[in-house]
Amino acid sequence: MKYLYVVNRFYFKEKTDEIIKTLEKVSLEFGRDFEILVNDTIGDALLNKEMFKDRECIVTALGGDGSVNRILNNIVDTKNILSYIPIGTGNDFYRGNLEVLENGIHDVDLIRINDTWCINIACFGIDADIANDDRFIHNKLIPESMRYNAAVVYHFLTYNGRRMKISCNDEVYDRDYTTVVVANSRYYGSGYKVSPFSEIDDGMMEVYLVDRLNKANMAKVILSMKDASHLKNPAVKALQTDRLVISADTPFTANIDGELLTADRFEIQIIPKKVRLDFDTDFIKKVREVKYS
Q: Which of 28, 82, 225, 278 could be cross-linked to 192 through a Cys-Cys bond (beta carbons 3.0 to 4.6 Å apart)?
């Protein structure tokens, strides 16, 4: 089966040609039949759905979780297989898969959120505000490893909670929250292990409701997510479900695999084994060995 690599020049900019050369070299070493598609603009990346409809390829996103999400939403309900090479700013989906997947092709679950598909994690509240804040996340003046942490500090100082109504497992939770996280996999925010028990093929979502907190307790919860000890905090309620609804009186933002979505009501459902995922750590590591200037 042919590999179709999708490279976004609008994201990689001057690194694009070097990345393409690496893809060609490593693909030849691995004996892959391949083609490279270059998107020059974000508009090109968003309008690719029609071109994938009649293909049967292993469509491979290069970049972070947002790049994976765009490819995912273009190929759902086609005969294509999803793949990715994690060379973005977050790569949290890759972190989770390293813990649960062996090399090969897997049938994995997806989360449907209104009309959008999610494969890793969706968050609402302070986490969404942090992940959606381009003043930090894509700021070239801040070292890449520090961008998420810079956004965390800013929103930690300015956030006062958000009223959300969550309907889940025949219960309704209606109060101010610091954050709500819906997880199919384990990591988000460049290495925060928010959902340590998530499996990508078990037909269930893990949901975490974090009450509105004062600054001291908010800091404790945020820091404890690095090693998953936040689950011991009484302000964190953990649920498991196959569907839920999150709503508010006015529109608010969600962050879905690194992509922004705004609505006043989010209908969320897990769809078991909705897409096939090709996972090849040997190929990924070979491409990631190169230090792109």
A: 225
No. of H helices and E strands in the chain?
11, 13
Where is 271: in which H helix or E strand? strand 259-279
Q: What share of the chain is helix, strand, coil (3-state, %, to 5)?
A: 35, 40, 30
Tokens of 101: 């997947």
- Residue ranges per structural domain of the chain: 3-110+275-288, 121-271
pLDDT, one tens digit per residue, over 108-140 is 999 999 999 999 999 998 878 777 666 766 666
Nearest-angstrom CA–CA distance, 27 and 41: 25
CATH number of 121-271: 2.60.200.40
Regarding pTM above 0.70, the answer is yes
Provide the 3-class DSSP secondary structure of residue 242.
Answer: coil
Q: Strands, E, within 45-120: which ranges? A: 58-63, 81-86, 104-113, 116-118
Which residue(s) pair with 125 in the sheet?
179
What are residue 45's phi and psi, to 5 degrees? -65, -35
E strands within 64-114? 81-86, 104-113
- Do the domains 3-110+275-288 and 121-271 sit in the same CATH topology, yes or no? no
Cα gap 223→237, rounded to integer Å? 17
For the stretch 56-70, pLDDT in tens is 999 999 999 999 999
The neighbouring-strand residues paired with 176 are 163
Could you tell me the sign of the dihedral formed by the alpha carbons of 230, 175, 263, 266, in that order? Answer: positive
**Architecture of the domain delimited by 3-110+275-288:** 3-Layer(aba) Sandwich (3.40)
